[in-house]
Write a structure and sequence with these properties.
heterodimer; A: 67 residues; mainly alpha; Non-ribosomal Peptide Synthetase Peptidyl Carrier Protein, Chain A; 4 helices; 57% helix; B: 550 residues; alpha/beta; Rossmann fold; Aminopeptidase; 5-stranded parallel beta sheet; 20 helices; 19% strand; globular
């Protein structure tokens, strides 16, 4: 889980991110969401179904899909 | 570097936000408003593109978008429209580099191969068009995106998900590759290129150690395992054929190494391919320094390749500007290693005919240096070289080389004014001005066009706007010969100027040496004059021939 947070922080160019960080707080825009999907899929070798993206509200939601 | 970021206009028929986001640390981007508006942007002279000071234009096209589901004819019409737009772009934008991508059309694979004819025709039609633009316009370059995609493979390059989510069809690998190609092209346009590769021998140009394994024992062949070294040598040879010069820097017994180079049947690189061969027991740093002075090259023009990490670290520590890439731990990667070096640090935007003879030129320079050290004084040395000079007004076919010299000469360059090809054309077209060029050759070879002098006349005097010379021919009093010829053509006052830079120290006293009088000196920015009316033409008897025209 820590690896996940580190990885996301790097993509988001932030010092630290937390699991409960929401879409709104993290100031992700759709571009950042795309980046996260692209990078996480490549890093974890899994697919993030498009359908599941609607339900992603926090980083934890993303983690649940990819872990 | 405090230099401001270059502004790149990125025109595309896909969403480029992720590309911009990836490269924004290095470049600023201008992208037109709206999706797929590049055609309008290109054909409208009042569009944002033409009203901004951009440093380069990139046209990155997804070929699949040209394809039509309805009919092949519709697809072909779209390519025709693209061709018109790109022609307009290259007509409106002539002073900055334009990079245009080739296209890859992803065919609907439900179609049988025999139904895919239109796709190849469209790809080829576009390729032929942009290639002919690149051949006829000096600032237009093609970027072979289709080749990059073939190299990676479509499955890995594209991502349907990214396309549906964002109208950007590349996967992470595809995006990385596109960004790398963009960056490589822009680096070739805007950053200094390396000129020389100095290589080690044992376990670098061949496998094994020549002094222990002997000529039969070292590993290099044109097939199977030994082919990795053969292929590496082939890559170096390809670079040499495109203007990079090669040198050897090896701790070895010279006779052993020489034998291997001469007689090993699979050695592709021969002694003649190297401008300098330092095969001795001195430190590699000392050898590199010697090469710098013998070949008159700066440290920053060197790449040093060695399998030994200790040697690499020493060179890195002592020669900060020499590029020392990590040698691949797995030597089957040597081929790609060489390719990366070429694309990242060496590839020029265009290979000019002149560049191809570089090895010969630098070899001649080394012979001259040797003769210099044997000679008694400079005049004797010059006489021995049997130098011939030809000075004349610039001819149209010479403008490419003139532009190149004006923009890359740093050391012997009194004002370091950079001009585009267009600007030079304009200067030369004004009857008050004159652009002169000088050629030099000697008994060792032809140095080609080595100097440019731009003169701007007013009613009463003549100003030397630019005076520059290739560093290969410095130290032969050619500057005296050139000024001598020009001064004797003119009656009034000659005004000359020296603008100091970090690199043009060799010519800071040039005009003092040439007999000009200093008029002012403000922080090293000096103005000189000379009364050409009273100028006594000198003979320069130690030159074999001096020809002046125009």
């Amino acid at each position: 889980m820590e690896k996940f947070l580190e990885f996301v922080a790097e993509i988001m160019e932030k010092d630290k991110v937390t699991m409960d960080m929401t879409y709104k707080e993290g100031k992700w825009d759709s571009l950042m969401m795309l980046k996260l999907v692209m990078e996480l899929e490549a890093e974890y070798g899994k697919t993030i179904p498009m359908e599941s993206l609607d339900n992603v509200k926090t980083l934890e939601d993303l983690y649940e899909i990819i872990k | 570097m405090a230099e401001s970021k270059k502004i790149i206009a990125l025109l595309s028929n896909i969403t480029v936000d992720l590309i911009v986001s990836k490269l924004r640390h290095k470049y600023d981007f201008y992208t037109p408003e709206g999706f797929d508006t590049w055609v309008q942007e290109a054909i409208n002279p009042a569009s944002g593109l033409y009203n901004r000071n951009v440093d380069a234009v990139f046209v990155l096209l997804d070929g699949t978008e040209a394809r039509s589901w309805k009919s092949d004819e519709e697809g072909k019409e779209r390519i025709t429209l693209w061709k018109q737009a790109i022609t307009a772009l290259t007509n409106y934008t002539i002073t900055i580099p334009i990079f245009i991508s080739t296209i890859d059309i992803r065919e609907n694979r439900i179609k049988s191969p025999s139904e895919r004819k239109a796709r190849y025709e469209m790809e080829n039609d576009w390729y032929q068009h942009i290639q002919s633009l690149a051949e006829s316009k000096s600032k237009v370059y093609t970027l072979d995106l289709a080749d990059t995609i073939a190299e990676i493979g479509r499955k890995q390059f594209y991502s349907n998900k990214m396309w549906y989510l964002s109208s950007m069809p590349y996967s992470k690998d595809g995006l990385d590759a596109v960004c790398m190609e963009l960056d490589r092209a822009l680096s070739a346009a805007f950053s200094l290129r390396k000129k020389i590769i100095a290589v080690d021998l044992d376990n670098t140009l061949w496998g094994g150690v020549i002094s222990e394994d002997g000529i039969e024992g070292i590993e290099i062949s044109d097939h199977k395992e030994g082919q990795r070294y053969y292929d590496f040598q082939r890559q170096l040879l390809e670079m040499k054929n495109r203007g990079i010069i090669l040198a050897i820097n090896s701790k070895n017994n010279e006779q052993d190494a020489d034998k291997a180079i001469r007689f090993h049947p699979a050695m592709l690189l021969k002694n003649d391919d190297f401008v300098s061969r330092k095969i001795n027991w001195k430190s590699k740093v000392a050898n590199l320094k010697e090469m710098e002075s013998e070949l008159n090259l700066t440290e920053g023009s060197f790449i040093f390749i060695d399998d030994n990490p200790i040697e690499r670290e020493t060179v890195k520590a002592e020669c900060l500007e020499i590029l020392v890439p990590d040698f691949p731990a797995d030597t089957t990667e040597l081929l790609g290693f060489a390719e990366d070096i070429w694309f990242d640090y060496c590839m020029p935007l265009r290979v000019l005919g002149h560049d191809l003879n570089k090895t010969q030129m630098y070899q001649n320079e080394a012979k001259r240096s040797q003769e210099m050290s044997e000679s008694i004084n400079l005049d004797d040395y010059i006489k021995k070289l049997e130098i011939m000079v030809d000075i004349h007004r610039m001819r149209p076919e010479e403008i490419g080389r003139v532009t190149q010299l004006i923009n890359k000469t740093n050391q012997f360059n009194v004002t370091t004014k950079r001009y585009t090809q267009d600007e030079i054309e304009k200067i030369a077209a004004d009857f008050r001005n004159a652009v002169y060029v000088a050629y030099s050759s000697d008994k060792y070879g032809d140095s080609g066009l080595i100097s440019v002098i731009i003169l701007k006349n007013s009613d009463t005097d003549m100003k030397i706007d630019s005076f520059l010379m290739s560093c290969r021919v410095m130290g032969r009093k050619l500057e005296n010969v050139i000024i001598n010829e020009l001064a004797s053509k003119f009656d009034g006052k000659i005004i000359a100027e020296f603008i100091p830079t970090a690199k043009n120290i060799p010519v800071k006293d040039l005009y003092d040496r040439l007999g000009f009088h200093i008029v002012s000196d403000i922080n090293g920015h000096k103005i000189y004059e000379m009364d050409a009316g009273n100028y006594q033409k000198q003979l320069f008897a130690y030159y074999k021939e001096i020809k002046t025209e125009g």
